Amino acid sequence: MDQVGKAARASMDAIYKEMADGRKPFDFNSMEGKDWNSLMGNLDRRALFSVSSNQGGQFSKQEQDIAQSIMSAQQGWAMGLPSGPSRLVDAIPGSINSDPAASLKAGVKWLDGVSNDEKASISWASSRASAQIGYEWMMEGRSEPTENLNSDSPMVKLIKSAMDTMKNSMERGFTTGPLTNKKELTQQTWFKGFEDKWDAAERQTQEIYKAKS
């Protein structure tokens, strides 16, 4: 990941310079994120993750946010929830998200295909748990069987167990803010009572995916 981060940094710096030399410097507020795509459109998922996670402490908060936004959009497209430039979204003939359960299952399958580096992160575990539990809730009462989408990640399993307590609780039934680190996770009302299990789950998950990276 150190090499991936350095390569991403070098690529982005070269593009910044190219844009500036062409007298059209990078514009964060460019129409429909045009300059975002120019800056990071050539980065693969692993490189985007290196930016979003500030690998090596070499990326600005703005760059991290752009990378995270692009990564979220990628997941959305995989789930049949397209977002981004209108020229791309408008080209889709009608809705492809007629079945929310199928959309959520597609999200789980897609998340399972990212790099092991990303799977060791809290943001991935939170997204993975959320998609799985959404799928399972959507399948309740349907005639077809619910597919077993259990993850081998201890973090996903723990977060999913905590999220499951939201179902019948007005007090625990909402998420506040992003879920990218331990503090943001443990301050959620639905995570109360699970805090003492977190460190072990995080350590075990790191061991599993770091060994595979």
What's the topology here?
Elements: H1 2-21, H2 34-40, H3 45-52, H4 61-78, H5 86-89, H6 100-111, H7 116-119, H8 122-139, H9 154-163, H10 182-186, H11 198-212
Q: End-to-end span in angstroms?
A: 9 Å
Helix content estimate: 55-70%
> Count the helices. How many?
11
**Whole-number mean pLDDT:** 92
Number of strands: 0
Query: How much is the radius of gyration in Å?
Result: 19 Å
The major pleated sheet works out as: none
Explain briefly what this protein structure is.
By secondary structure, this protein is mainly α. The protein has two domains: 2-89, no CATH class; 100-212, no CATH class. The protein has eleven helices and no strands.
Structural write-up:
With 213 residues, the chain is mainly α. It folds into 2 domains: 2-89, no CATH class; 100-212, no CATH class. 57% of the residues lie in helices and 0% in strands. The protein has 11 helices and no strands. The protein has helices at residues 2-21, 34-40, 45-52, 61-78, 86-89, 100-111, 116-119, 122-139, 154-163, 182-186, 198-212. The protein is globular. The mean pLDDT is 92.
Question: What distinguishing features does this structure have?
Answer:
213 residues, mainly alpha, 2 domains, 11 helices, globular
